[in-house]
Amino acid sequence: MAHHTLEMPIDERQVRELRVGDTVTLEQRLFGIRDATLIHMFDRGRTTRLDLKGHAVIHTAPNVRRIDKPPENAPRYEPLCIGTTTSQRMEHFTRQLMEREGVRIIIGKGGMGTHTQDAFRDLGGAYLAIVGGAAALETTWIEEIEDVDMDDLHPESLWQFRIKGFGPLLVTMDSHGGSLHADVNKIAADRRAAVLASIGAEE
Length: 203
Hints:
Oligomer: single chain
Domain Fe-S hydro-lyase tartrate dehydratase beta-type catalytic: 6-183
GO molecular function: L(+)-tartrate dehydratase activity
EC number: 4.2.1.32
CATH class: Alpha Beta
Structural class: alpha/beta
Protein name: L(+)-tartrate dehydratase subunit beta
Number of strands: 9
CATH superfamily: Fe-S hydro-lyase, tartrate dehydratase beta-type, catalytic domain
Strand content: 25-35%
Number of helices: 6
Organism: Variibacter gotjawalensis
Strand order of the largest sheet: 2-3-6-7-9
């Protein structure tokens, strides 16, 4: 197990160096994305002017405060609380997000499933897990909201964050077929079957 500090963006070689059990700290840039963003991008055909190639996305719908600027400039936002949401509902979009936008890393809670695992193996990607309830800590790793696209979806817009020392985060899915989530699910299923058998109960 190793620790990796990654200056974003990264390439396929770098993400394939990550293994389940490693830890990662991200620097420079991170993008916030959530259900509505993905639905609009991939089911409704919207495109983004932001460049996600080689970057990480975090499953989030942040609490922010709008900072009004002169009329010639776009509105800006400051982060108030940037937490992480459960990732499994966004399983359907992983391959498209990687193929079309070039995303390399997904950050979230609870892990993802076999479709995501296949996409990571085929295209080169990894999942980094955050412990639930750590939003206050995560927010300290966000230096600035640099940009936002599709802000009609607020708070499920596409956010561009400038970050510093975002981590350490745990690699729980890698590009080599490793998945801590699948391992835990198997252990739990085996133990459940053993307990039921011990008391003569059926599944």
